[in-house]
Amino acid sequence: MKYNAIIMGLSLVLSACGSSSSGGGKKKVIKFSSLSMNPITLQKENTRCSSADLLEEEKIFTVTRLINKKPVEEIVNLQSFLQNNQLVDANKDLLNAHLYDVSKRRVLEVVYYDENSFDITTDIDEVDSAGLTNSVCADNMSYARNSYENVGLIVTNALTKTRSAITSLISDSIPSVSVSLTPLEYSKVKVTDVYGNVYQDEEGYRTNNAYYSPSEKALVFLPGSKEVEAAGIFEKPFWEIPMVASHEYGHHIFDTLYPNFEHSNMHQDILHDSCFDTRFNTNTEMMAVSEARTTERSDIVGGFNEGFADLMAQYTLSESENYLGDLNCFRKNREVKSPKFADGTIKKFNAKNIRLLFSSKEYETSSCNKANIQEIHHMGAVFAHVTDAIQSSYGLTNTEKLQNILTWIKALNEDENLNLMGGRDYFENSMRKFVKIMHKNYGNINDDIIRDYLSGVSI
Q: FRET label pair with 306: which of 246, 275, 372, 397, CA 20 to 30 Å apart?
């Protein structure tokens, strides 16, 4: 277990998406904190409804979202979804709970020994408030943009679209999830070495991100922060971006259809990574921080998990709902159709990117806009673009593409030999399975395109 992976994970203190790389060594550590003492939550407009029952014609709402930097009103039809006035479906197939006003407290103290070991000396994880159920009222069919009702409707609408598209193609049972809007999750993190030297000591509320918790089957949308708002880094909050909700649900689908995948030790022992890299600044330096890196199978799974989640949003939402072009850190980097990252790095598994992915040198960056294929979000972005571009070359619809990716993830789960492989063998065998699906369904007429996008891979 490497020290800088511990520091990067603990400084974010998020319970989310993928797994961290697991090399060794400790040189210069780049830290970024999403902890804030000034979280921005939402407001509840109707704490009590005049009636708990909504007529069918009363389940059509007007919501407000920021599109192309302007507030836009849209119609959301939840006639077949709402359980009375609660934002959960009657059979609880999709949502079993939709909460606000959740508050938690997490205190972690860690002693770091070397690149292979650490002790968690304090681990307090408490729930101060389990939250309240989010509901909408017939008294009010439209809500303020920053209300729990408006945001709950936006998130629910995106999730219903993604679940409906996926369940129309597979017969697998998909467990329901819960949603938590802007919970106050206080974290205090302290990391020292055996001599008492302090590597990290910070506290605050977790902000400016979203995550999926596999153990709780929960989709969580963290609050914004006054610091980020004042800096103007993000022009819209995460909960207003339909792609984010569908992406988080995509992690749930990944966990459901691929239960045999192996989490990293970091994932098991401490916490998980954030779903979105929000380290926005103008420093585009990429530096080597270790020369003893090994790319483990769990690192590749983490990247696949991120890319798979991006594709779930891409194939189940409309083009406008997937629009990320005016968002820092998202622009180009997480746009599936973009052939390059924001810094111009090509999204292909070519020889250059593969060398970096499996390099024994570990590289880190301090900005979301500097591509680093070793980082799971960027590796996932390459995977998402590569597989989508190859499928597009056959002229496939989004539904056909979705079917193929779902077939692929289930094929990984069925192959027990994959969990015996190292990182590179796992990666190449997994990509071969994708190519095999293409050949089986559409022949080898586009092999030149496949070879171009996978030129660094032995397929």
A: 397
